[in-house]
Specification:
Structural class: mainly alpha
CATH superfamily of the largest domain: Ribosomal protein L17
Number of helices: 6
Number of strands: 3
Oligomer: single chain
Strand order of the largest sheet: 1-3-2
CATH architecture of the largest domain: Alpha-Beta Complex
Radius of gyration: 26 Å
Largest sheet: 3 strands, antiparallel
Helix content: 55-70%
Shape: elongated
CATH class of the largest domain: Alpha Beta
Distance between the termini: 94 Å
Order of helices and strands: HEHHHEEHH
Number of domains: 2
CATH topology of the largest domain: 50s Ribosomal Protein L17, Chain: A
Strand content: 5-15%
């Protein structure tokens, strides 16, 4: 029975599995998306997301912890230099898994795993949200009511002036 055993061994010994996940994580950070099987994508998601969380705070210790997992200096630098600033305000969920269907050779379930903030297709329609603060209802409602009539009156004045100039 496998009670409490949550890790997917992916049919590999421990050292091979750790090396494979480290290499896949480096490829994901370098290329921002990779194609792999669904099982490997799910295992990679659990491997990468804590590293991205650590990269949000750029300290020597966090760089060393990430380097101990990934073992590639360039990938760690890319993670802290480009990935971390983009995901700084996101509370989690840095990767997305999109299922692609089955592979022709062996009919394995394939998936694309990508970093969420680096997909231009999904993020094109969304405008960047400005952080809002909570204010009292009285202060904001009074400000909008006062400004609205002034805006409506301005085009009416412009039309009257244009008619006078024509005459």
């Amino acid at each position: 029975m496998r009670h409490g055993k949550k890790i997917n061994h992916l049919g590999r010994k421990t050292a091979h599995r750790h090396s494979m996940l480290a290499n896949m994580a480096c490829s994901l950070i370098e290329h921002k998306r990779i194609n792999t099987t669904v099982a490997k994508a799910k295992a990679l998601k659990q491997f990468v997301e804590p590293l991205v969380t650590k990269s949000k705070e750029d300290t020597t210790q966090n760089r060393r912890l990430c380097f101990a997992k990934m073992r590639q200096k360039d990938a760690v630098a890319e993670l802290f230099r480009t990935v971390a600033p983009k995901v700084g305000d996101r509370p989690g969920g840095y990767t997305r898994i999109i299922k692609l269907g089955n592979r022709l050779g062996d009919n394995a379930d394939m998936a694309m795993i990508e970093l969420v903030d680096f997909n231009e297709i999904y993020n094109a329609g969304k405008a960047t949200k400005k952080k809002t603060t909570r204010r009292s209802r009285r202060g904001s409602a009074a400000g909008t009511e006062a400004a609205a009539p002034a805006v409506k009156a301005a085009p009416a004045k412009a039309e009257k002036e244009a008619k006078k100039e024509e005459e």
